[in-house]
Each structure stands twice: as structure tokens, then as C-alpha cells.
């Protein structure tokens, strides 16, 4: 059974390169501009991992019977490549993202892989596209590794085929910019979730990054925006424990007056 092996990577360069948007361009807010290439690697239950490939970015076809379409057998990661003020390209803790993707894959019965090999594939794609797509210091591009069950099987069962892919996307800087037509603000308004909507719970899958965590939260998010808020502050339990804000971690700095050092509080990935 073949393991994921970045040393067997094949590279097919794009013959036509796409225009790179300016870092201040409003196009970035569409979050749909990908770089010239993508990395892919197929897996089958009989053969294991095939040779990975970096090839021109394109759509791929998938069977209507694919497991990921019906049973949410998919997971993903979100990370960034930065161009530092010293003009060097950097990844931030890619090993942590790779390990969480492996944990997420296991949670939804997708194939395992060597996390170090995944990091090497990410680095390879960055080396191909980041020099041209990230030309200015102080900016970044968003990296999305994902793994989906692609086997043609409508029955409720573990996927027999899967596809790993990695793309790099232009992304706005939410910390310093606002969407076109939106007045910049320094605050963030949060609406607490209703008692009948729960984002994460003991024994669930809030500790992994799977699509099933996100779709059910969109209705509450839209409700918050219609009411003039930015995001939902997700609560759990009768005592209203904070679990997350929107789709991001929530933390607070607390100073109780008894100690000189403030405390940093955030939700745990385990319960209790």
C-alpha cells in the first residue's frame, strides 16, 4: 500500500499565467481568485496514494455518487504564506495544520497520510506560485489543503477513493480593511447564539475542521448580519460557555484586580 510521498511529485507548469491582482484591489473580497497551479493526489483503498502532481489550476469533475456529496466525508485546513518585510516567504506552523488535517480525516473515515509529506507538498506549491503571486512585502496568500471522499458509492460506507488537493487563493486582510461599500469600524459586534443552535458539543466534531461544522451555522450568521451584527458568539450549556465567534477562535484578556498579570482565556478543544 503506497504512502503519500512528496519526493514522487510531478510538475506540469501552466502555459498561460493569470493576472495577479493588486494587494489593495477590491477583487480580493470575492475570495475566488486562485493562483496558477494546484497540487493533487488521489488515493484508493486497493493501491493507497498515487504520485502527487502540481498542475495548472482547473475545475475537476466528480461523480454525483461521490461520498463527499452526500455524507460530508471531507475536511480541510486554512493557513497562509507570508511575504515578510525582509522579502522572504514564510509559512506559520504548517506542521500543526497538517496534523489537524490528519485528525480531521480520521474523524470522517478518510485515508491517513504522513503529515510531513503533506507539508512538503504545500511548500512545493508555494515555491511554484508564491514568488509571482505574492510580490510585495507585508502581504499574504491563503492556502487551502482539502481531502474529499470521491468513491462512486451511494451506500452509507467508508469511502474507497479520495482526493487530496491544495490551492492558493488571494485573500483580503480583514484586520486592516473593510469590504467595498462598508464603513470601516474598530469594533466587532457579536450576537449570542440562541439556545436551540449549538456550534460544538461534547462528543461532537468541533475539534476538527470539517464542512459539516459550517453549513448548519450559516443561517445563524445571516440572522446576525440582518440584525446589524458582524458574527455569532456561539454559546453552549445552561451557563452559556463560549465556544467560538463566527468561524474563529474567541479569547478574552481578563484583569481581576488581584494580580498584576492579566489572564488570557479561551475555549478548550476538550470538554470539560
TrEMBL record:
Q: Which GO terms describe its biological process?
A: L-leucine biosynthetic process; L-valine biosynthetic process
What cofactor(s) does the depicted protein rely on?
pyridoxal 5'-phosphate
A GO cellular component annotated for this chain's UniProt record is: mitochondrion
State the coiled-coil residue ranges: none
Give residue numbers for the modification (N6-(pyridoxal phosphate)lysine).
209
The record's listing under Gene3D superfamilies reads: 3.30.470.10, D-amino Acid Aminotransferase, subunit A, domain 2
Gene Ontology MF: a single term:
branched-chain-amino-acid transaminase activity
Name the UniProt key words of this record, in alphabetical order: Aminotransferase, Pyridoxal phosphate, Transferase
Give the similarity note: Belongs to the class-IV pyridoxal-phosphate-dependent aminotransferase family.
**Protein name as it appears in the record:** Branched-chain-amino-acid aminotransferase
- Record the organism: Aspergillus chevalieri
Amino acid at each position: 500500500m503506497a504512502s503519500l510521498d512528496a519526493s514522487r511529485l510531478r510538475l506540469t507548469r501552466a502555459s498561460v499565467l493569470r493576472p495577479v491582482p493588486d494587494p489593495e484591489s477590491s477583487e480580493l473580497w470575492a475570495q475566488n481568485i486562485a493562483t496558477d497551479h494546484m497540487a493533487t493526489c488521489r488515493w484508493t483503498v486497493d493501491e493507497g496514494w498515487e504520485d502527487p502532481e502540481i498542475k495548472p489550476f482547473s475545475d475537476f469533475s466528480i461523480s454525483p455518487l461521490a461520498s463527499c456529496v452526500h455524507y460530508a466525508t471531507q475536511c480541510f485546513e486554512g493557513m497562509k504564506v507570508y511575504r515578510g518585510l525582509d522579502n522572504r516567504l514564510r509559512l506559520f506552523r504548517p506542521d500543526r495544520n497538517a496534523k489537524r488535517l490528519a485528525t480531521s480525516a480520521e474523524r470522517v473515515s478518510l485515508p491517513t497520510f504522513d503529515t510531513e509529506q503533506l507539508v512538503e507538498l504545500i511548500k512545493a506549491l508555494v515555491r511554484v506560485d508564491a514568488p509571482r503571486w505574492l510580490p510585495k512585502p507585508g502581504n499574504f496568500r491563503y492556502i487551502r489543503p482539502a481531502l474529499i471522499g470521491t468513491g462512486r458509492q451511494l451506500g452509507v460506507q467508508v469511502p474507497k477513493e479520495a482526493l487530496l488537493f491544495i490551492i492558493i487563493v488571494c485573500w483580503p486582510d480583514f484586520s486592516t480593511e473593510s469590504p467595498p461599500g462598508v464603513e470601516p469600524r474598530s469594533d466587532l459586534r457579536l450576537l449570542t447564539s440562541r439556545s436551540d443552535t449549538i456550534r460544538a458539543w461534547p462528543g461532537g466534531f468541533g475539534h476538527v475542521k470539517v464542512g459539516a461544522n459550517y453549513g448548519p451555522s450559516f443561517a445563524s450568521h445571516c440572522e446576525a448580519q440582518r440584525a446589524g451584527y458582524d458574527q455569532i458568539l456561539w454559546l453552549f450549556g445552561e451557563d452559556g460557555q463560549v465556544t467560538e465567534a463566527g468561524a474563529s477562535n474567541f479569547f478574552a484578556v481578563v484583569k481581576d484586580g488581584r494580580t498584576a498579570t492579566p489572564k488570557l482565556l479561551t475555549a478548550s478543544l476538550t470538554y470539560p
